[in-house]
Amino acid sequence: MNIRVCKEFTFEMAHALYGHDGPCKNIHGHSYKLSVVLLGSPKEKKESDFGMVMDFSEMKEIINQEVVHHFDHSLVINKDYPHAMPDGDAFGKVHRVGYQPTCENLLIDICNRLKGKFPHNIHVVSIRLRETATSYAEWNAKENIAL
Question: What is the count of structural domains for the chain?
Fold first, then answer.
């Protein structure tokens, strides 16, 4: 029997949308909420994770390592952003990316970071990235190639 397990994460991140006509062209931040849903069968073999699809602590470790620790308290800007932006100690974590750092494109980046990181018998069903209390982007396996 397949069961879905979900883990939620939060991180703080700033970004700017280069060339955007609205106020999001300015550097601003969000408290992002990331939800990852996995699908699998509870393990039958009597090990420490017997009865679990995946130990939540293992899921947490993978997602923190691949996503949260990378983006948390960082500034993400398009590599073509024309304004001078100091790297290193002045700003700490500045990520210059080859895409417009919208919620949608950040979600694609997150999907790529998680691809192949879970055991082969566990599948990613959906990933949701909430940018504000009322706005989010969502990836769903039924509409895409599975991770």
Answer: 1
pTM to 2 decimal places: 0.91
Q: What is the CATH number of the domain that holds 33?
A: 3.30.479.10
Catalytic residue list contains 103: no
Q: Do 85 and 91 touch, CB atoms closer than 8 A? A: yes
Catalytic residue among 6, 12, 20, 24: 24
Enter the tokens of residue 134.
């009322």
For residues 127 and 38, what is the distance between their CA atoms, to the nearest angstrom? 9
pLDDT tens-digit profile, the chain (147 residues):
999 999 999 999 999 999 999 999 999 999 999 999 999 999 987 778 889 999 999 999 999 999 999 999 999 999 998 876 665 556 679 999 999 999 999 999 999 999 999 999 999 999 999 999 999 999 999 999 766
> What range does the domain containing 34 cover?
3-143
Q: Let me know if 73 is a catalytic residue.
A: yes
Does the annotation count 69 as an active-site position?
no
Residues in the chain: 147
